[in-house]
Write a structure and sequence with these properties.
The protein is of the alpha/beta class. The protein has one domain. It contains 4 helices and 7 strands; from the N terminus they run αββββααββαβ. It is globular.
Length: 158
Amino acid sequence: MVRLADLSETERKGMLGRIKELSGFNGAGAWITPPRLSDCRVAIVTTAGIHRHGDVPFTEGPAQADYRVIPGNTPAADITMSHNSINYDRTGFQQDINVVFPIDRLRELAAEKVIGGVADYHYSFMGALPAKALEPRGRALAGLLKKDKVDAVILTPV
């Protein structure tokens, strides 16, 4: 993943300018105290632009602001990446999917009883989109996580 310091001044200013899009978030909201970690059902939400082979790839246009559902039993070999940013280095993903989608680590934590369990479904967005474009999908996704009885989410921003 590229570091902010490695970007040109123009790109750096553009990235930092995106923070202004989040001005509506003031930290107040429906925050809750989750169960103990050992009782939590955990899901992964990533912006790595990954999906199962055969799913609609992330491309320019409206489909890019949507998310893809990744069932928890999907083998790593059946997951591909269509993240299309020129600033994204795919090397880590190609060597170990857990860099962007830590499903094996999550399963290990469940087996060791560190967490209560792994969600049945996980979700991937395409990164590098305006936050406001993702907000409606994020709200819909929150409903799906609730339906899956998820207590905590690991966010892997890319």
